What does this fold into?
Amino acid sequence: MDKSMDHHGSAPVVFADQPAELMIGPFTSKLTLGVVDDLENEVPRPVVTLVMPTPALFQMAREILHQAASASVKRRTVKALLDAAKAIESESDLTNASGSATKAPAPARKQRSPKT
It folds into this structure.
């Protein structure tokens, strides 16, 4: 096993923006998740692929939908989004009260290496 993936018994955590590919087979299915690096090109760059028995994938999909429909999940999500919006508004109020708003620096863009 590659030592960079050895987490002493815990699973590695990988961030993904969205699904990149889904292949469903009769016995196993493959779900690839990715991130969008370039806002002009919304094709996600694959970061992780999960292969699992197809019935287990369907059970996982049902569980995701069940939890997403939960009233408590909806309440927590709405509260978190409202809190984030209030924080953004209060930051905006602080910069406006000082009489000068400072412009945030543009995020650095990654340089892509030439394809070989």
About this structure: The radius of gyration is 21 Å. The beta strands are 18-24, 28-35, 45-53.
